[in-house]
Write a structure and sequence with these properties.
The chain is of the alpha+beta class. It folds into three domains: 5-166, ibrinogen binding protein from staphylococcus aureus fold (Roll), CATH 2.30.310.10; 267-417; 424-541, no CATH class. Helix content is 35%, strand content 24%. The strands form five sheets. The protein has a nine-stranded antiparallel sheet. The protein is elongated, with a radius of gyration of 34 Å. The protein starts with a helix and ends with a strand.
């Protein structure tokens, strides 16, 4: 659901109570999202600004964000001019979908300067523009040259102009409203969703002024869940008939947009990874097919040896010029043997023996190559499965892994610094269950993090998570919880009766030469589980 001007007005109103706000850090978490770490009265949080065309917004968030190690040029410009600056004033005109943040900061000579940060949240035109005190654009997230928009040029050095003003009425003070016409076209800050709610309430006896008074006095965001979407506003959308939950405005936006932000951040990393992984899956699948065809041909080697033996029996025959020879086999059966007409019978026999030796040696080589190709195919199928459930940090792990093994150029890896391996934990009845969601995490969990007396779980015959629990004698509840996590975070999550093997960590052994996360084990037991998403578990990233 798009953010309308009246909702943004309430967001601005909420942000103003924290003024002045100091900007401590500036970073980007995706191509369309900038995060300011800010410090103000009673808060030290992140000011998140998303400029995605579908879900652009601004909010305060207490969540942690993984940021790009190599910031864009625009972020470097923001750091140069407004890092450690103070946001002392926030403006919004005509309930439009942009905020002007007035920032006071010092330059390299410690002279105090004034800047304006224009936070524009207008759908596909969403943008962030830094303006100097003389009214000229310093830089912008999305640059717009004159040939793309003749009304408003957004380029460094151009004169900053506000978005075009719309000739509409103030909804909180307008008196001559035509309720037979569109309210969106008449009133500032109105969206179609808000108009539908206002008309629904008026139809049920509410006065327009009373509805607007409720909006003016609201300090909450009402979120209505709708399948994979969420509807929200600063008053309940009773016309939808959906259940809602009320949040503090900033927490509400965090609830609504956090998942979308994460998807966008993952997309920036994972799209290219999916292409690489699927290309490799196709490559090795095709290679195995060709090798299997060569192996089928090589498996006919016994027929070549038999033909050579039979021809040696009739080596005195004059068969030059013949393309085939029909002779009785050792059991009396007449058999047709193809010949090279240029060669004698003995020379043709030697030719069949040569083919036999070549196929015998080739069979061993082809079988080795098939096994190598099958291992690679299994590896990339596991990566494909891991990417389907990866969050941003997990996707970076997979990117690092592909770079390490040469499938991705190291120069394309943005986060070059060695970082700690993320794992996931759940507390159950005083015990800690820990699991990984990709090869790097699984390898670290099983051979570095887990103690030898921990119990280890993995879905049998499926690519998936390694799971450990901090005891060598788990009870039935712990076993079923761990087995469910192992099955749910595997390729078998949508299957039933998924077998899950479990044993002590000391029974695990690395596979020499194998990719990270591949293990062998012994002295294990197996439990069958119907995997499901256990929403009561509070999974934490560590």
């Amino acid at each position: 659901m798009a953010l309308d001007g009246i909702t943004l007005y309430k967001v601005r109103e909420d942000l103003e109570k924290y003024l002045p706000i100091r900007i401590n850090r500036i970073a980007e978490t995706s191509k369309t999202q900038i995060v300011f770490n800010v410090h103000a009265n009673r808060i030290r949080e992140n000011l998140v600004m998303s400029f995605h065309s579908n879900y652009n917004h601004i909010r305060l968030s207490d969540r942690n964000y993984n940021t790009y190690a190599d910031p864009s040029t625009f972020v470097m410009v923001l750091r140069k001019y407004i890092l450690n600056g103070i946001i002392h004033k926030i403006e919004q005109f005509n309930y439009d979908r942009y905020l002007l943040m007035h920032i006071r900061a010092r330059d390299e000579l410690y002279d105090e300067k004034e800047y304006i940060l224009s936070v524009e949240l207008m759908g596909k035109y969403a943008n962030l523009i830094l303006v100097s005190q003389d009214g000229k654009i310093i830089d912008a997230l999305k640059k717009i040259p004159p040939y793309e928009n003749t009304r408003r040029t957004i380029l460094p050095g151009a004169l900053f102009e506000l978005p075009e003003k719309q000739d509409k009425k103030d909804p909180f003070h307008a008196k001559d409203i035509d309720f037979d016409a569109s309210l969106v076209k008449q009133l500032q800050g109105f969206s179609r969703q808000l108009e539908e709610e206002v008309r629904f309430r008026m139809k049920n006896g509410a006065a327009f002024q009373d509805v607007m008074a409720q909006i003016a006095n609201s300090h909450s965001l009402y979120v209505h869940k709708k399948e994979n979407d969420a509807l929200f506003h600063v008053l309940p959308l009773t016309n939808t008939g959906l259940q809602f939950q009320a949040y503090d405005i900033q927490k509400g936006f965090d609830e609504v947009y956090c998942e979308d932000d994460e998807k966008e951040r993952i997309k920036g990393v994972a799209d290219d990874l999916f292409k690489i992984v699927k290309r490799q899956i196709k490559h090795f699948d095709t290679k195995i097919g060709k090798l299997q065809s060569s192996l089928d041909d090589a498996l006919n080697l016994q027929a070549d040896k038999d033909a050579g033996d039979l021809l040696y029996t009739y080596e005195d025959l004059d068969a030059k010029g013949l393309k085939k020879l029909e002779i009785a086999d050792f059991d009396g059966t007449v058999r047709s043997i193809a010949l090279d007409p240029k060669l004698s019978v003995k020379a043709n026999a030697n030719r069949y023996y040569s083919q036999y030796q070549k196929k015998r040696k080739g069979k061993v080589y082809i079988e080795e190559q098939i096994q190598i190709a099958q291992n690679e195919l299994t590896y990339f199928e596991s990566l494909n499965e891991q990417l389907s459930i990866a969050n941003y940090s997990d996707a970076l792990d997979i990117k690092e892994e592909l770079s390490r093994f040469g499938y991705l150029k190291k120069g394309n890896l943005k986060n070059k610094k060695k970082k700690k391996v993320n794992l996931y934990q759940v507390k159950v009845d005083g015990h800690t269950i820990t699991f990984g969601k990709n090869n790097i995490q699984n390898a670290f969990l099983s051979f570095d993090y887990a103690r030898s007396n921990y119990t280890w779980f993995h879905a049998k015959q499926f690519h998936g998570s390694h799971v450990v629990v901090d005891t060598d004698r788990p009870d039935e509840k712990l076993i079923r919880t761990c087995a469910n996590l192992a099955a749910y975070y595997s390729k078998g999550r949508y299957s039933s009766s998924v077998p899950v093997d479990y044993c002590l960590v000391k029974e695990l052994k690395k596979v020499k030469g194998a990719k990270p996360g591949f293990v062998t084990f012994r002295n294990y037991k197996t439990i069958y589980i119907d995997p499901y998403e256990d929403k009561e578990l509070k999974i934490l990233s560590i």
